[in-house]
DNA sequence: CCCACTCTTCCACTGGATGGAAAGTGTCCG
DNA sequence: CGGACACTTTCCATCCAGTGGAAGAGTGGG
């Protein structure tokens, strides 16, 4: 979401730059805000916004602010990478939530990031930092470690060559620590992320495999640090296997 | 999704026409199929597709077919009209599912259609005709009747002036029948849709109110015709009220 | 090999998109 | 009330991003 980068010359590039102004922290924006944050001239912004509204990609609320429209959500719901997986996994995620009573998350890998495709949390849940659609770096979360440990070697190399962002003093920040953590995941078949994003939670994660045995996603439970991770680990791993079977995976 | 309509002249119009080729029944498509179904010339289609891929709005799978990409899903996840509501409602929907063990759905109104924003179903659920993001006409579903009964008068008038599509021999197809059904909903405070879409199911629906008391959504349970609707009705209504409270509604 | 189908590339041309400037609207303050 | 300011909308001569027919490349089957 650049104001320091050159504005794209292509119309679609501009439209997507404009849509990128909307984030979880800025779910709505005025025309001037859209212009400022996108770097597009005001009248260009105005014209683009009007057309995006015509296509229901943007909506205008009562106070003159714009929000992402239903049409994008409908189209997004057709994305097999996210929602197909989510729908098949949901019953098992709910089972996991029922037996653990902790926050449950399902995530996939998109390049060097985790994308959360589902989260089930209680009404009075322990600190929640993710939502549907949100992203975090692979190295800093349980699901991310699982997805990275089983990712193609060139993906792993790229991740190890990337600066590892620090969230807490527990976050993995060196390539050697990450390499070691990934080896541990592959040896154990699961990951425990220890206060890497928040100092009050652990994340226990297990792989979800597609029909061909590839790790297509990861499921995790987030627990407060007072909770022993081994009380939820079997359920998380069982959930990962159940979803894998629902996706067509068979143990060889 | 027109091949009989003129192709838009504007680029954004063309892009959205192209994206509209993807449906629940056609989650992936080849370049030629996209060209054929959108009415856009092959080379235009090719160029648009390449750029949409660059923006992650489309993905290409291993067999050369295109699918809707993650980026649209991420953007759509920011749509307050759908997912904000969904996230607040999810715990209550899960409760409803636990106590009824039947399919639970949450829907909003978009003009003269129902848009389903959540569905929770068991692994061995009775016939499922809706999915997240899918649409049905207001007159033919429990949630649609609720949403229409409490919609602004001009919306109701427009619905009554529209041809009422028939799905089964039980579907409401005349304005008088619809007017009467809406009056019943407003009198009772809930709706029962009797085999209107599928001849083997009833849908029991109740309103979900926003902070100002407006009916912002509707929640329903779909049950097989052997099930007595009055066994689930109190739970559906309680769920509607619980979600309403979570949205800030207070009974006056 | 030929055929049918799908996908990719090319480029002279053009019309959809541009954005600075002006006009319009709304709010706040002296 | 008028002025200042911020935000939104409109206008239009200009221009360059987008166009699509045609040719070429690739694939699979007979």
UniProtKB/TrEMBL annotation, chains A, B:
UniProt KW keywords: DNA-binding, Transcription, Transcription regulation
MF terms (GO), sorted A to Z: DNA binding; DNA-binding transcription factor activity
Entries under InterPro entries matching the protein: GAF-like_dom_sf, HTH_MetabolicPath_Reg, Tscrpt_reg_IclR_C, Tscrpt_reg_IclR_N, WH-like_DNA-bd_sf, WH_DNA-bd_sf
Name of this chain's protein: DNA-binding IclR family transcriptional regulator
GO biological process, one term: negative regulation of DNA-templated transcription
Domain HTH iclR-type: 9-70
Record SUPFAM superfamilies: GAF domain-like, Winged helix' DNA-binding domain
């Amino acid at each position: 979401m650049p104001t320091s980068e050159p504005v794209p010359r292509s119309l679609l590039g501009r439209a997507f730059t404009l849509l990128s102004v909307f984030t979880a922290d800025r779910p709505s924006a005025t025309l001037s805000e859209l212009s400022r944050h996108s770097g597009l001239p005001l009248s260009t912004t105005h014209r683009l916004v009007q057309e995006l509204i015509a296509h229901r990609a943007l909506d205008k609320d009562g106070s003159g602010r714009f929000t992402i429209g239903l049409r994008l959500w409908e189209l997004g719901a057709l994305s097999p990478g996210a929602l197909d997986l989510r729908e098949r996994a949901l019953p098992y995620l709910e089972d996991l939530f029922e037996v653990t009573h902790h926050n449950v998350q399902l995530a996939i890998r998109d390049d060097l990031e985790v994308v959360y495709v589902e989260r089930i949390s209680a009404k009075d849940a322990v600190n929640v930092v993710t939502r549907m659609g949100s992203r975090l770096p692979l190295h800093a979360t349980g699901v991310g470690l699982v997805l990275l440990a089983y990712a193609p070697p060139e993906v792993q190399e790229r991740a190890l060559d990337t600066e590892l962002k620090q969230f807490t003093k527990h976050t993995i920040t060196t390539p050697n620590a990450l390499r070691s953590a990934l080896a541990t995941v592959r040896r154990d078949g699961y990951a425990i992320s220890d206060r890497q994003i928040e100092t009050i939670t652990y994340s226990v994660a297990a792989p979800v495999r597609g029909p061909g045995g590839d790790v297509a996603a990861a499921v995790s439970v987030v627990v407060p640090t007072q909770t022993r991770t081994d009380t939820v680990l079997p359920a998380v791993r069982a959930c990962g296997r159940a979803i894998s079977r629902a996706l067509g995976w068979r143990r060889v």
